[in-house]
Here is the input.
Amino acid sequence: MHGSTFQALTVETLPQRLGPVAAVAERVGGQPSAWKVREVGDGNLNLVFIVEGEKAAVVVKQALPYVRLVGDSWPLPLKRSFFEYHALTRQEKRAPGSVPAIYHFDESQALIAMEYLSPHIILRRALIQGRQLPRIAEDLGLFMARTLFRGSDLHMPTRERKADLALFADNTELCDITENLVFTDPYFAAPMNRHTPELDPLVAELRADRNLKVEAQKLKHLFAAKAETLVHGDLHTGSVMVTDGDTRVIDPEFAFYGPIAFDVGMLLANYWMAFFSQRGHEEQGSREAMRAYLLQVIEETWAVFRAEFARLWRTERTGMLYHRSLYEDQGDTLGAEQALSHLIHEVWTDMLGFAGVEIHRRILGLAHNADFETIEDTGSRASCEGAALKFGRHIAVNRRHIHSLAEINHLAQSLDKGL
Amino acid sequence: MHGSTFQALTVETLPQRLGPVAAVAERVGGQPSAWKVREVGDGNLNLVFIVEGEKAAVVVKQALPYVRLVGDSWPLPLKRSFFEYHALTRQEKRAPGSVPAIYHFDESQALIAMEYLSPHIILRRALIQGRQLPRIAEDLGLFMARTLFRGSDLHMPTRERKADLALFADNTELCDITENLVFTDPYFAAPMNRHTPELDPLVAELRADRNLKVEAQKLKHLFAAKAETLVHGDLHTGSVMVTDGDTRVIDPEFAFYGPIAFDVGMLLANYWMAFFSQRGHEEQGSREAMRAYLLQVIEETWAVFRAEFARLWRTERTGMLYHRSLYEDQGDTLGAEQALSHLIHEVWTDMLGFAGVEIHRRILGLAHNADFETIEDTGSRASCEGAALKFGRHIAVNRRHIHSLAEINHLAQSLDKGL
Here is the structure.
């Protein structure tokens, strides 16, 4: 199947097509005809199969030439699989153990065979169920600091970074999705938008909010033009698989060179949405402890990210930016610390902005979150979503004037109680 | 000579080698053996020939595989000619009439045959002579606004911009020169630096200036990561040819996708250096009027740039950023004006920073300016340079707190008088 015309796999054709691929067949074991194959893709874009044989199970992910959520009226190039593969290899190198192992990549079939993570579940589902995962704050804080620092001119040889920037610049269609669906469509009556009807008055208010609309576009400008580092590009709680003891980041097909703050903002936004959605999931008991846990995860994620970023700044700042020759080598360690403070401050400020618009697009745009969508009563859902929308507006517009997570988490609690 | 191994042209070999190229031979006219060829390159990097025949004269610019200023110990790839060619074609499209016409490009010979501009002279030389050019503020203000606006996501289809970004991302060696020679080397005792000896105490002070060194690196970070638009990349007064009635921008081999503010800052920095150097050129008479002229040019250049940028914002904002669907189409013209104000404010702030470091590197780094270098008395030269260094430090470090050119031009006058 190498180099051949693209053909979507099916549960039926997969064994015969991947049987000849030694890297897959040897790992799965037994006769391909005896493999058990299930299609489990629940994302918006791709096919995902679990293939089980005598020895082990393997995941096979295949891109489709269109957006699965919408259908073939919305074509999307297969090359996103190429970008996913290259992002995964870079993430594994920069943050070892944080992503699934890759066994096989077939560019023309837009297909990646990778580690079957078990008994992992999608982090978003765990949070909806009210599960408290003990490792996510530390694991994802480290993942972000390591991938984002080590993929930037703070660490990489700049020639290598520029070549990589050029490679990923071709991931235009997926960037285009983010550019439109995250930063623009939610702020006017774009055709593919939808929202819970009870939100109509608030939605009208937000779409008439000049400061918000200017800020959203400034953030889009940052997203499009600030080519700082290789970002995951879609780091929400649906792109993380967890057990109590392990955390893995999946699905980096939106990867490109963008702002350090983007991944951080998107992840925290999804925690905040998990927080605001808890009240809609209280039929089987109070989620008070879960809410406290989520706010704690947010504070700890940022603290771990910041501490690890600072550690790397002090020990791995080998790139062309803020070079030691200007600071430490001249006995001016404080100069390097000053620059670090300024840089982290900028990441903080931009992170709040990206978080705000990510919250908005998940409630006002095309791609909604299961956190809210699984709340069946639309009145209850709108109440959760409304608090989240107000919170998103607050942090996006006031991002230059917010000092601490303690301060905004307090605001989140007040809004959640119906402020 | 197409596709053949690179060979540097000489005055002797040029007619025989370019004779067979119809685009050149027909324009020059007559027998190639009768062409008059002069080598006139006075820049740091390339060969430049003027070829005259029966009908007309043509300029032939050829890159060398090393830095001409330093010699073959510093290799530099020929592909810079490719980037120059592509930058020239884009500039001509975005700001018609602002660059020389191109007659022929040979990639393997790194050679561009282009319009011979006559009686144009290099703007820097004119300013050293004390000539007041009536058109430069308007022409260059328009050139910058048009090329920088139309090459950004404010105007271009973003796919096209991203493909172009990837193309120019390969211009690493020339970006590398700017990254090191402009933003880093001047701020420590780098091997290739030199400065007028009388400046020793001030140089020591600047190299111990923590705020300045942090700011210089923040500007380097912006330069390297803010891929907003196709910039000229080396827009100083040595890259402009002028008559009283015409202004042309040449030598865009440093072109890449960078911040809008970079070209503006570099150009104004070179006007400020021309201003500070005037006192060293007063043997043949006062340069008082020339100083006033230069400060006026600076104010007018910025005013023209801002006005044209605003006009294009209102009439050609067809790209994906700050799209009309969010503002004008919703009756919120003020929303678009608000976003414009914020964007111009950012360009202003960054422009001052880039201007400050450009002044420093021309006095402390490898590549100095004839404005100062032609002042033979080193005491007088150091006095001019010292005022410029202090001015550069002031605008770079305080760039977020400076409101107007009137304010800093007043400071320039005070420093020039020995404040």
